[in-house]
Design brief:
Alpha-Beta Plaits, 3 domains, 4% strand
């Protein structure tokens, strides 16, 4: 274990100093100030489109095509990015509606140019003082989040509800609704309107250049924010669950996998001109793994690319069933997965919001397995197109249409907008419960051929309900405990929180015979 993590780990058990109580309001104040500055940076800067920006951004043929449409914008100063983006989009749309574009679909210019045009046309603000604005916004927010969590070390280890189901931030109150609305809005902008986020990408440009040699894209911004949140909220998780060694090691694991395998290593691979690949991502969660352009990129990369392709294929076909047989789906969903890592850290305050009703369980099973079938059909069509050179099967199943539909509905709306934005409304595992195709695949193996289960000692249960309240997967754990029945639900991710919050030690994560009854 790295020395810094070892020191943190030891401090969770032995902390001779007491942290002053004012750190919590101070931390909250710093976080809110940094968050406010972060929002404010979106409004900074002026915008001027020049011939040089056009030459740097557009392909030669598109420069000629858009020359007339862009002419009124050249050299004009805009103080509002909203107006600038509107006029820029209008110029592109004006060309696309022209007779030339209507006669030849290949001549249509899509809005992928908007992000680069806006970013390169920005003058001032984060574009010229990225470091200053970074520390005034993201830096202060990170510091505030850490300071807010530290005073919890003064308390005795263990779980206390502390009005969890009544607080406006954690139980569908106005704070939670405001956070959910912000997350939904952020994902909509990230996926569909990234040109409005160029100032935020400028904040992390220096970090991007240090890691991959180029300016930050919207996906680098997302990866950085994602990783920072997992690390900061991971510290909170380590403090809150310091009475459980299992939770300690599990949290270290998701923090490390997110930092190294999901963020740093892929960015460094880009710096070395190797294919960008999250080595812990597995098909069908990584739904574009078998797309033609992904396969070609890996094959063209030589030995390393071939290794990455074989590694990913082997992990999906062999690693998932074999490892899940021995330890259940928890090995991935609760120890490795980035989606699970965000759910267990940022989403931890909302785990009690998961619906434990039978109706929710029935909907969950239909949706999650439906998405798995969708992913399998899409992948089969994509591979057929790659191998045969034909885009359509039976003349009407077009692989490009199917994968575009999957990317929009599942990859963007379900996994991002709903999957994270609904944390404060439906709990932290909305995506994992209702939409993740890999969770469905792992769950099928866990249901029919796995040694993992949570054993119960019904005679010790006092029906406090902590286990059911804290179950993020919508399982009524108390009902199993009262019957003394092992919990072997395919949806269980083995996070172990039910065991960690049980005051009587009724629940234990164990391996046992495969022939235990499953439901």
């Amino acid at each position: 274990m790295p020395r810094t993590l070892f020191i943190l780990h030891r401090s969770l058990y032995i902390h001779p100093m007491r942290y002053p109580s004012f750190l919590r309001p101070l931390g909250l104040g710093l976080f809110l100030f940094g968050f406010a500055v972060w929002l404010y940076t979106l409004t900074l800067g002026t915008f001027r489109l020049t011939d040089e920006v056009v030459r740097q951004t557009l392909k030669p043929e598109h420069q000629v095509a858009l020359k007339t449409s862009l002419a009124p914008l050249l050299g004009r100063d805009y103080s509002s990015n909203l107006r600038f983006i509107s006029d820029l989009r209008g110029a592109i749309d004006s060309y696309n509606s022209s007779q030339q574009a209507k006669q030849n679909w290949k001549a249509v210019i899509y809005d992928e140019y908007l992000f680069d045009l806006v970013k390169r046309s920005t003058i001032g603000g984060p574009m010229e003082a990225a470091g200053l604005w970074f520390w005034l916004s993201i830096g202060l927010a990170i510091l505030g989040g850490l300071l807010y969590a530290l005073p919890r070390l003064n308390d005795q280890p263990g779980i206390r509800n502390d009005g969890l189901v009544r607080h406006p931030a954690t139980h569908r109150g106005w704070i939670g609704i405001a956070l959910g609305t912000f997350l939904i809005g952020f994902y909509i902008l990230l996926y569909f309107y990234p040109e409005y986020l160029t100032n935020w990408t400028a904040l992390v440009d220096p970090i991007s250049r240090a890691l991959n040699g180029g300016p930050a894209s919207r996906w680098f911004l997302y990866g950085f924010l994602y990783t920072a949140i997992v690390l900061v909220m991971g510290v909170r998780m380590l403090i809150n669950y310091r009475h459980s060694r299992y939770q300690q090691y599990r949290t270290y694991s998701v923090m490390a996998f997110q930092l190294f395998f999901a963020f740093l290593i892929p960015e460094l691979m880009s710096l070395l001109n190797a294919p960008y690949q999250d080595l812990k991502s597995i098909w069908p969660l990584d739904y574009d793994f078998f797309f033609d352009y992904e396969i070609k990129a890996k094959l063209q990369a030589g030995t390393l690319g071939i290794f990455m392709f074989v590694w990913g294929t082997g992990l999906s076909a062999v690693g998932v069933p074999v490892i899940t047989y021995f330890v259940g789906k928890r090995w991935y969903c609760s120890w490795v997965c980035g989606c699970g890592g965000l759910a267990e850290t940022l989403g931890d305050p909302y785990r009690h919001l998961s619906d434990k009703s039978l109706k929710a369980w029935k909907i969950e099973r239909v949706l999650v397995h439906g998405v798995l079938v969708f992913a399998v059909v899409m992948t089969a069509l994509v591979l057929y197109s790659y191998l045969s050179g034909q885009s359509a099967l039976f003349g009407f199943l077009d692989s490009y249409t199917v994968r575009k539909t999957y990317g929009f509905l599942i990859g963007s709306i379900f996994a991002g907008v709903v999957g994270t934005g609904f944390y404060p409304l439906m709990g932290n595992r909305v995506w994992c419960r209702f939409g993740c195709p890999l969770a469905a695949y792992l769950g099928l193996v866990q249901r029919f051929k796995s040694r993992f289960r949570i054993t119960t000692n019904g005679g010790q249960c006092i029906s406090c309900g902590n286990c059911s309240t804290y179950c993020e997967m919508g399982i009524d754990v108390r009902a199993y405990a009262q019957r003394g029945q092992d919990i072997v639900r395919s949806s269980c991710v083995g996070c172990g929180i039910c065991s960690a919050v049980c005051p009587r030690g009724v629940l234990n994560l164990e391996n046992g015979p495969v022939n235990t009854r499953r439901i």
